[in-house]
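TL;DR need structure tokens for one chain.
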Amino acid sequence: MEFWRTCLGSARYVLAPMVDQSELAWRMLSRRHGAELCFTPMIHAQVFLRDSNYRRDNLYQDTHPDDRPLITQFCSNDPEVFVEAALLAQDYCDAIDLNLGCPQMIAKRGHYGVFLQDEWDLLERMIKLASEKLSVPVTCKIRVFQEVEKTVKYAKMLEKAGCQMLTVHGRTKEQKGARTGVASWEHIKAVREAVSIPVFANGNIQNLSDVHRCMEETGVQGVMSAEGHLHNPALFEGRSPPVWEMAEEYLEVVQKYPPCSLSFVRAHLFKLWHHTLQIHQDLREDLAKAKTLSGIEEVNRQLKQRCQEEMSKEESERHQTGLPLPHWICQPYVRPAPKEESQVNGQNTAEVKTVRMKRALEDSDSNDSLSKNKQKKKARNPNKNFCPELKPKYIKCEQCGNPKGNKCVFSLCRGCCKKKAYKEVADCPVLNEPSKY
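>> reply
TL;DR here they are.
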């Protein structure tokens, strides 16, 4: 609790870690409008450790003295890698967070996030080692299990290992996308009552009244918002300003705290303008094609003009959207509730859908056997070949297995050849070709 009170200033309103969405500019905008604590986007510990450019772009150049308190979040599945990466980051933040909540497919493939929640021995080693080696506290963001008792036991294990603060997302690993559903505050309350460290709640936050209700019902120290905050950056102030007003301010902040990728800017504006772009769909296309900040500012100017023209009309002449507020006002996007699963011939509809959507083995070149992504590529290039038997065979690099360079005298790929030339007294004719490197 002392860490929460002193280092984090008893923060109650928290901006969530969001990949490509909680960058410096958005954090600074959030702080202007009530956010008291911010997380960096999730950083891949292994890449952070080995790549200096990645460190620069994802943390070293993405911080500011006014951007505090700040917690840096890592994903990792290796205690040594996690700690070594955290040691390189600890001077730029107030705590290091381990992501144990990401449910996306990329986390499943990389074996991190929520896909570590059953490996308690590994997590205990990671947290314990980090708490021993780091000069800043270690925190965790988790998802819940179906069983409240197991979730509580999980949280207590992390606390005992050295975790000094928990953020509990009240959804399970399976609750994502169309099956997101409602987060369980019951689980969060049970965790809060079972541990002695600070707990933040995450899930079901669409406005400031939800924040206060969540704190009252669960007893948590603070509340974290992700989706709700992306649609309304003034959420923690209890305001719902016009979307173009927030867009104008965000674009101003982007220029004040560079560098900020244009793709991040577009992504934020697609969220802010979500409801309005359902009506003015040509502006969606204009935003997607904009190549500069000035181009995006022009799209915002057009959106503002159209909305103000609609505001001047009688209410009966305005676009009817079924939203609680006019479409030009910042407000949350409410996901449709998951459809109830019924029985079809004694089989669950979810199981039927899984069987129908299961991909066929990719052993032929017919469209029926291709993944959706490959079918899209096929549509763009009808002559593209996906059949493994017909693809040209390449000689592999002796070190990494990638295709070797055609002219390399060492039978290596370009990357391995270049490393060999630097490390050893060796010279390859291909390295003298400037077009290659």
